[in-house]
Specification:
about 160 residues, alpha/beta, Rossmann fold
């Protein structure tokens, strides 16, 4: 995989929003929408993780890109290396992560400390809105596998910025 990484002006406030996004849920979109006012650009980065069941990463990239196409501040890429390496390549000084529970917080706190230690990149944790707290990609995949309509867990496209 040889992804093309976007380039931004050096003074831009760029954040990386990494995840497997399999699928990209209403919770993911909510975190993205709430992070947009904080940064000039956000790169949604789809990690290819061999330990997780995954649909084709390029297909996920295309689906998410279609959802965010109205907002030029958002770019979507795939990657298969360390998240901090991708952050460096796109000039991101921040990583955005969503937190649904205390267990998520503990995991993300440790990950943030390591990313700060090895790369000097700060992590911004955004708490999931209560309505989206029970929604996870694995839950959506499980429901879909049993024929449940999961459309209420999948996001609508972003509106154009004002």
């Amino acid at each position: 995989m040889t992804p093309k990484f976007p380039e931004f002006p050096p003074e831009a406030r760029v954040a990386l929003y990494p995840g497997s996004f399999n699928p990209f849920t209403v919770g993911h979109m909510s975190v993205l929408e709430r992070a947009l006012p904080l940064f000039d650009h956000i790169v949604v980065a789809i990690g290819v993780n061999p330990d997780k069941p995954s649909a084709d990463a390029d297909c996920r990239r295309d689906l998410i890109a279609d959802l965010v196409k109205a907002d030029p501040r958002v770019r979507v890429i795939t990657y298969d290396c360390l998240t901090v390496e991708v952050a460096r390549r796109v000039g991101a000084r921040f990583i955005i992560r969503g937190v649904r529970s205390a267990a998520d917080f503990e995991y993300e706190q440790n990950l943030a400390a390591v990313n700060r230690d090895i790369a000097g990149i700060e992590t911004i944790l955004l708490y999931t809105l209560p309505a989206h707290a029970p929604v996870s990609s694995s839950m959506v995949r499980e429901l879909e596998r049993y024929g449940v309509n999961v459309s209420c867990y999948l996001p609508s496209p972003l509106p154009s910025p004002k």
